Amino acid sequence: MNYSKIILKKGKEISLKRRHHWVFSGAIAQMEPNLESGQLVEVLSSNKEFLGIGHFSNGSIMVRIISFEKREINQSFWNEKIASAYSLRKSLGLTENPETNVYRLIHGEGDLLPGLIVDFYNGTAVIQAHHIGMHQHVSEVAQAIQNTYGDKLSGVFDKSAETLPKNLGISSNEWIIGKPETDLVQEYGATYRIDWEKGQKTGFFIDQRENRKLLASYSKDKKVLNTFCYSGGFSVLSLLEGAAEVHSVDISPKAIELTEENINLNSQIKEKHESKVADVVKYIREIGDDYDIIVLDPPAFAKNIKARHNAVQAYKRLNAEALKKIKTGGILFTFSCSQVVDKALFTHTITAAALESGRKVKILHQLSQPADHPINIFHPETEYLKGLVLFVE
After folding, report:
1. pLDDT tens-place string over residues 158-209
2. Of 64, 51, 53, 52, which Cα lies nearest the Cα of 25?
3. Any idea which residues carry the catalytic annotation?
4. Per-residue b/e over 351-373, b at no fewer than 16 CB within 10 Å?
5. Would you say 343 and 386 are in contact if contact means Cβ atoms under 8 Å apart?
6. 244-275: pLDDT as tens digits
7. Domain membership flag for residue 160
8. Structural domain harbouring 268
9. What is the mean pLDDT of residues 60-76?
């Protein structure tokens, strides 16, 4: 084991000793010349104490630590990491559940592997690497997944082209191992078709699983509006739990096609569903006041700190409009997946929207991501999804 060395400025080792995974450019005192992005490096304190091994990249975050132990990063390392992550999901009851056979296997820093996402879809594992260093290990990760799952695995798909910087020239996604036996999955008994190759993220928003179930528990005999619906996850489960009527809205025609397909897969509910291609922000201004439940699950309005102010204003306008329109005694499920908008700021923003609406509003639930998207207690950036369930008088 002979990795290039990076030496930190005095006092900058504190965050790594607290097990935070990132080393910022301003913390570095010295590094070897001609380091290449993706290269494995050893990080040392100013007095040459070993701190960790990680991937180097030219940028604000210069090193992402994948091991706080001094060890070889080889196939055994990846086998251990994947097996450990699988063990957690097994303890959550996700690996042998016929009603739900889709879950997240690796959640980046939440599973101590910065920049790596692996989602499991009823026999198919989909990998997304978010930086070139992690992508260089995709074959080893795929092998470790196969070693862990054995004959329960039908295929491993690398879908990193969308998440890697465009200047790397990686423009296509590919099957690394096998091919899928089916593109259908089950979540709480609902059936969905997953488009790994062309769908958003890895094909499905797994992180809303428990929140979809909660919404469904409120939906019996209710009229529901599901906005930013993507593939209709909230819509399907609401209808299966007895919603009187559900309307699904998204600006993307492809998303509405996916929603319609998933509704049809659960054919007993299709008579109670309507979908529409529309700009949600404009559409919600025109709706009537007869919806019992409204779901606001927009894409990330802010992907960096510079965009945060505009994002907060967008969340406020959207939620104020929904709060004004929802039926008396209605329930609003509202979410943000913007990492730079934390729970406190999101709650303050929704409070401002409630004041603007002039309605009486109570918080029934404060929501987050499910347990297969673990939050690393030493790396708070792993907590990104937040939501509120509001009762509106």
Report:
1. 999 989 988 787 878 999 999 998 999 999 999 999 999 888 899 999 999 9
2. 64
3. 337
4. ebbbeebebebeeeeebbbbbbb
5. yes
6. 999 999 999 999 999 999 999 998 898 999 99
7. yes
8. 205-392
9. 97
For 116, counting Cβ atoms within 10 Å of its Cβ (0-12 exposed, 13-18 middle, 19+ buried), the class is buried
Chain center to CA of 334 = 16
What is the strand order of the sheet 4-8 is part of? Answer: 22-24, 61-67, 50-56, 40-44, 4-8, 28-31
Residues 341 and 244 in one domain: yes
Q: pTM for this structure? A: 0.95
Nearest to 2 by CA among 34, 46, 39: 39
Would you state the structure tokens that stand for residue 286, as one six-digit string?
A: 């025109």
Residue 385 lies in a domain: yes
Query: How many CB atoms neighbour CB 135 within 10 A?
Result: 23
Q: Which of 26, 44, 67 is the last residue of a domain?
A: 67
Residue at token pair 């929904």: 322
Decide: helix, strand or coil at residue 108.
Answer: helix
Q: How far apart are the first and last CA of the chain?
A: 64
